[in-house]
Amino acid sequence: MSSSYLPATTDSIAQALEAKTPSEAISILYRVLENPSSAPDALRIKEQAITNLSDLLRQENRAEELRSLLAQLRPFFAVIPKAKTAKIVRGIIDDVAKIPGTSDLQISLCKEVVQWTRDEKRTFLRQRVEAKLAALLMENKEYPEALNLLSGLIKEVRRLDDKLLLVDIDLLESKLHFSLRNLPKAKASLTAARTAANAIYVPPAQQGNIDLQSGILHAEEKDYKTAYSYFFEAFEAFNSLEDPRAVFSLKYMLLCKIMVSQADDVAGIISSKAGLQYVGLELDAMKAVADAHAKRSLKLFEIALRDFKAQLEEDPIVHRHLSSLYDTLLEQNLCRLIEPYSRVEIAHIAELIELPVDHVEKKLSQMILDKKFAGTLDQGAGCLVIFDDPKTDAIYPATLETISNIGKVVDSLYVRSAKIMA
């Protein structure tokens, strides 16, 4: 312990606040923490010093120092209540999370804290840090490890009947299964989260999270009207809290309107009182897609995808649904263009639809294989040959039905004759 420690008093905290530079303030706070006093007033001042120091290190983007601070404070945690320890530890982990580009550091930090809580038998804190670790592993796409961690944690928390933590874990498990494209398990986990949430008071932010996940799962099942109502509930919850996730809820609301061919409503929602608060690239992207959909223009659609790549293609939820919408629009446009012809050059179709020839040729071959229309590609001549739809002759089904009925009559007569002979 250094001999240059400062007294754990409000004057020392004030001295740190009045420091000219963040580095000077950090140095003063470290010296306050070195004070060996365990008096109640001194402990209270040290807690304040830890909070201030953590904030300063976060502002200075000194993530490694935050990690070291957590290790240095372990002797201090032995003399304060466990509840206060949990608050400080989770606060420092959250401060590290606010520093960009620290996902690997956060994972290793959480693993260190989990090991320490196991050694110290601090179950309450360990469970919450493990839930945070599972969320970080999921963000890092380390799905198997996250799933293993959650499986054990859920069983443990269910035994303790900690419903608030259970809601968090079930919701996290639902997101994890959705990332792995396992929709039945994602829905089951979400139902478990809702059941636990119904038994307790859930903070509005967490309720918004549940509604957002419900909307995502319903949208995945193409139930866009129900998804819209859930996204609207999530938007209202986040909007009242001024949470940045509100803009994503609004974005998904607009996506649902586009997917049910109500693109005309998009402009009205954006220009509403609530929508105007979130005007920006996210909503501009959805408006561009809505305009392209309303005009049935593939060229405008592709321009929107190119101009708003970060907002559309890099958002996995929006990208998945827009890919489906693009394919549908392309098929509708191609069917409309080839309808008057029995033989047409592929280059001519590509020119009319304003898309590359190879792209159009690939899509036409896919449509033929999917039996969207009857035809063949003459690649030597670069032409598409369209056949008339073969008309099914009604006599064959009628004949099969007659033979089936005769078979039933013969079977019935055989059963009766068997009874008479008996």
Strand content: under 5%
Head-to-tail CA distance between termini: 108 Å
Strand order of the largest sheet: 1-3-2
Number of helices: 23
Mean pLDDT across all amino acids: 88
Largest sheet: 3 strands, antiparallel
Number of strands: 3
Rg, please?
32 Å
Low-pLDDT sequence parts? none
What is the multimeric organization of the chains shown? single chain
Helix content: over 70%
From the spread of the alpha carbons, the general shape counts as elongated
Q: What is the H-and-E element order?
A: HHHHHHHHHHHHHHHHHHHHEHHEEH
Sheet/helix structural class = mainly alpha
Domain PCI: 223-391
Keywords: Proteasome
Family: Belongs to the proteasome subunit S9 family.
Protein name: PCI domain-containing protein
Could you list some keywords that capture this structure?
422 residues; 26S_Proteasome/COP9_Components; PCI_dom; proteasome
